[in-house]
Task: inverse folding
């Protein structure tokens, strides 16, 4: 990035007198990243340039970049300039993964959170019907069919379907949230795979529930989409209780 003093700044906000200067610097850089003024893969200014831009020391600039790296917004490597990363749910996915693996209670709470979030998503998806999201759901449904009896393949197809559901809203923040929930979906699927009595009919019933959700959304019927996603989670809750019973009950 040019060091020409006359170039236009990409940062629109400046830390006036924040309690922690690094927080103000990272906030301003994050705004540029999220707004697209710095594209994914693009190099950020050097620590020295950032320090001059904001009138802070290099250690403050370094701490700001460290905060952004922790948030998953930039990639840093020793001796090289930081580069922007595409906005994604990866940081949330890691946090949820730690939480749901800590106890069955946390996992049940996470699944309850999914129900609350995805019922709203299904309604919005039916209202907006973003073509890319609809196509992703169709592709995921085909993958689920091909993944019958193959837990890992079926799980990945299931995750893709729910990502497509989020994409169908046309809302980037909702897509990011769904990406963050992937670890919850994987953990639930692993628990379900412990059900020794899971039959082919169970697999096909899961596919049919997803097909019903897709059809309601593709038809633009928000009320039906809401009903179908609730039916899906009702069935998932029953299976969850079966798994918890087999594993000896919910942990505190």
Result:
């Amino acid at each position: 990035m040019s060091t020409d003093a006359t170039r236009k700044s990409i940062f629109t906000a400046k830390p006036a007198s924040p309690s922690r200067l690094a927080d103000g610097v990272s906030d301003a850089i994050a705004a540029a990243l999220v707004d697209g003024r710095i594209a994914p893969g693009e190099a950020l200014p050097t620590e020295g340039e950032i320090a001059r831009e904001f009138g802070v020391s290099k250690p403050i600039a370094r701490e700001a970049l460290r905060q952004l790296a922790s948030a998953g917004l930039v990639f840093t490597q020793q001796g090289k300039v930081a580069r922007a990363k595409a906005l994604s749910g990866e940081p949330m996915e890691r946090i949820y993964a730690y939480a749901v693996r800590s106890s069955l209670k946390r996992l049940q709470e996470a699944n309850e959170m999914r129900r609350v979030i995805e019922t709203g998503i299904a309604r919005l998806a039916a209202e907006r019907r973003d073509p890319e999201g609809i196509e992703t759901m169709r592709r995921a449904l085909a993958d689920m069919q091909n993944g019958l009896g193959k837990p890992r393949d079926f799980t990945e197809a299931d995750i893709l379907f729910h990502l497509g559901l989020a994409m169908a809203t046309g809302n980037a923040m909702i897509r990011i949230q769904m990406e963050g929930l992937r670890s919850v979906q994987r953990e639930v699927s692993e628990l379900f795979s412990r059900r020794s009595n899971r039959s082919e009919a169970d697999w096909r019933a899961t596919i049919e529930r997803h097909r019903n959700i897709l059809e309601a959304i593709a038809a633009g019927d928000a009320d039906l989409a809401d009903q179908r996603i609730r039916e899906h989670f009702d069935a998932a809750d029953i299976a969850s209780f079966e798994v918890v019973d087999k594993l000896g009950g919910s942990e505190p």
The first strand starts at residue 74 and ends at 77. The beta strands are 74-77, 80-84. The chain has two domains: 21-84, 90-246.
